[in-house]
Amino acid sequence: MAVPLFDNSSPLRPLREQLREAVARVLDSERYILGPEVSAFERELAAYCGVDHAVGVANGTDAITIALRAMGVGPGDDVVVPSFTFYASVEAIAPTGARPVFCDIDARTYCVTAETVRAALTPRTKAVIAVHLFGNVAPVPEIAALGVPVLEDAAQAAGSDSPAGRPGALGAAGTFSFYPSKNLACFGDGGAIVTSDPELAQRARILRFHGSRDKVGYEALGYNSRLDELQAAVLRVQLPHLDAWARGRREAERLYREAGLAELAQLPLAERGVAPAWHVYAIAHRHVDALQAALQAAGVGCKPYYRTPVHRQPPMREWGEGVELPATEQAARAHLAIPMSPLLTTAQAEEVVAAARPA
Ligand SMILES: Cc1ncc(COP(=O)(O)O)c(C=O)c1O
Question: Ligand 1: which of 160, 177, 184, 189 to mutate, most ligand atoms within 8 Å of CB?
């Protein structure tokens, strides 16, 4: 029996009728942009995260650019960012005119730490992007204690929780992506910025709307970057189920442990009290290519996510040349994502672990 890397459709199966109704509601309303569904979703997402404001935007990449600009980041500023992340975490800095400064991670959590951020601070650092990678939660309060505003890239961490609060509620602002494979996903592109800072939220609202409040007067060079009504309606159906899905993802990890995976590979580490909604379950192994081949031969979905870290991608040459990030290189070399879903069964977990066991 093949075990897929992701299973996004099974969790939605019981919601199909509600999803159809939500789409029909938007069709009947004939309101497609910045209408009641987006407003309601923004209220519901903010309440879920434990913040005062949410601003829907077109995708998770725009969310980062707009949030940084709303935080006052611009030309001449530095933004500290990990290199072991999805490319967009860094790419989104460039449109602000600021310079990405790469920092290392903890290879066991795949996240930045106060120490790795401190080592990358410069006199021009205006913000730090803490990526909650794979659904783990970076130690944002410790990083914020360094005295630099933190933007949380929570694209992969919807549903995760920590003793200090949910991703998005820990720093100056947080960003989400609702790309179809994400823990909270829409049927296309979508994203959001969350914050408890009313002025930051207002600046983000203006920036997503061409730098305008009313499309009559313009206060900034902005973007056309809005979450649309159809996507918001679809997200509203799913948000009430996010916590149950997150519990399912943690249960999947427990099943892997019970089946003996920790004896065969290094499992990702969460800091004390953190409850990750594993978006990606990435294990690490010294002979990762052989492990990947064995899993694939057994029909187990697996893939390395970031074999080449961002600072070594060609368009990053200007900022990445000469940068040395040992834990990033180690994680890049050794990680491998294995099947993860809210509905992973004991039999599937056992099958994955059996395939990972040396013959
Ligand atoms: C960590 C991270 N940041 C940013 C993004 C960008 O989001 P989007 O694809 O919605 O632009 C993604 C995912 O795609 C991501 O995984």
Answer: 177
Cα 107 from Cα 115, distance rounded (Å): 13
Give pLDDT, residue 359.
78
**CATH no. for 10-240:** 3.40.640.10
Distance 179 CA to ligand 1 centre (A): 7
Rg of the chain in Å (alpha carbons): 20
In the chain, where the domains are located: 10-240, 242-356
User: Running along the chain, 359 residues long, what does each successive block of 10 average in pLDDT?
Assistant: 93 97 97 97 98 98 98 98 98 98 98 98 98 98 98 98 98 98 97 98 98 96 98 98 98 98 98 97 98 98 98 98 97 98 98 94
Q: Is 228 helix (H, G, I), strand (E, B) or coil?
A: strand
DSSP 284-308: E-TTHHHHHHHHHHTTB--B-S-SS
Burial class (CB in 10 A: 0-12, 13-18, 19+), 264: middle
DSSP codes joined into one string, 52-113? SEEEEES-HHHHHHHHHHHTT--TT-EEEEESSS-THHHHTTGGGT-EEEEE--BTTTTB--
Closest CA to 178 of 242, 129, 125: 242
**Ligand 1 mutation pick, 6, 83, 86, max ligand atoms within 8 A of CB:** 86
**CA 336 / ligand 1 centre spacing (Å):** 19
Residue 120 is encoded by which pair of tokens?
């990358």
CA distance 51 to 163: 15
Best CATH choice for the domain 242-356 from the list 3.90.1150.10, 3.90.1170.40, 1.20.5.170, 3.90.1720.10: 3.90.1150.10
The confidence score (pLDDT) of residue 337 equals 98
User: What is the DSSP secondary-structure string of 124-187?
Assistant: TEEEEEEE-GGG----HHHHHTTTS-EEEE-TT-TT-B-TT--TTSSSSEEEEE--TTSSS--S
In ligand 1, the atom with minimum distance to the C-alpha of 59 is 10
Where does ligand 1 bind, in terms of residues with CB under 6 Å?
A: 59-61, 85-86, 88-89, 131, 153, 155-156, 177, 179, 189, 191
